[in-house]
Amino acid sequence: MAFQRASGILLHPTSLPNKFGIGDLGETAYQFIEFLSRSGQKLWQVLPLGPTGYGNSPYMSFSAIAGNPYLISPDLLAKQHLLKEEDWADIPEFDRDQVDFDVVIPYKRNLLELAYKRFKQGYVDQEPQHHHDLYLIQEQFKKFCIEESDWLEDYVLFITLHEVNPEITWNKWEEAIAKRDPQALQQKREELADQIQFHRFLQFLFFDQWLKLKQYANARNIQIIGDIPIYVSHHSADVWANPDNFALDPETNEVALMAGVPPDYFSATGQLWGNPVYNWEYLQETDFAWWIDRFRFLNRYVDIIRIDHFRGFQAFWQVKADQETAINGEWELALGAELFTRLNEVMGDLPILAEDLGIITSEVEKLRDDLNFPGMRVLMFAFGGGSDNFHLPHNYVRNSVVYTGTHDNDTAVGWWQRASKYEKNLFYRYIVGFATGEPINWVLIRMAMASVSVIAIIPLQDVLGLDNSARMNVPGTATGNWGWRYGDPELLNQDLSDRLLEVTQLYSR
Hints:
Distance between the termini: 18 Å
Strand order of the largest sheet: 9-6-3-2-1-12-11-10
Shape: globular
Largest sheet: 8 strands, parallel
Structural class: alpha/beta
């Protein structure tokens, strides 16, 4: 699909400021959309929105489809009379600049359980004028459960069983449940009916709030770029419900072959992600139905789809389960061309961006170009080589997306503070003609905006000029990531908006 020249901001909703310790889909999300609109931006890129597990990574979710309940806004629930402001009268003094997941999650869980209790009570203890509102919510919830049952029922049972057995993976549950014996599953549904209904309710709330936020953005000419990770977590509803799709040990259902990447820019030992790789032959036998369902669902809730680790659709790095690093892996061919051909037959020409970073071969480039997907360029990678560097702006093609940095990079200021003498020397030579008196983050922003790339995406940290303390993720490290927030909504002031608008208009974004 052909894209129009535009720019936007990369910001995960957890990074939004509010009083609840973690960004959500409430008031500051709407304020952020207003900031984008004032600043001439047309795109808001988010990370995957699924429920996160160990390490709180959006790329290691319990489901490829479900939403993260901790993004649900208590303020919006109060407007629906499911919560009251006095419910958070004793709210902790959360860190404004970092999400403390260990404290935030149990606190928000309590609020969500209270909202569910009120929902179940219905008219009890409610003002008479609120009865109609609650009736509408109940009817909408029933409709949601019916329409989304294909994925919802597997997920809510999985996540409930996970909470009953939080220390073990699904393949170590009692055998009848691990192997999905229908009678055993039905018994668990009956035993755990209320907890399962609670999780249905959370998914209803998440998608209700998300869809309203998306509609608000679209009404202001802002499109949402969503993220579809190539892999899913072994301990997820997807692998439990569809084990034949993945490379698992047939006896134990443990991961037999793990996903990752060989040694690269980010890590000398590569990255070992732990996710199971796909059984591509089986996926093809099923007409790629599982993948097409993923794309079909996400396409309803975002405007543009960014495919993470696109190169894995041409060939992927697989590592045997007994390895501790990704060094001793091997490349294996995937069936991405066949998948995307089938996807196009079923859904037509979707708006897709390809994250094509890493070890990119001519075969990967051909697959990307045959599909006409824009690839990525990252300015922080541009200054470590020579003039033929793929990431230097004079080497860009129009059908590409340029970033100052991604969620895996340092911030622009942090990068510059740590850049080598060689990188700084090349940078100074390269930027002749740019406003060299500007701070480094604005020089990179200007360079991205001026480039021929059809889309330019800037992490909010770089718009704000923040240093390494605002980094979102350090690849290859399991903990301490994904927590950054901009703690003060006043940071997105009119002066900043005007500055961003000026550079956006100057370069016809």
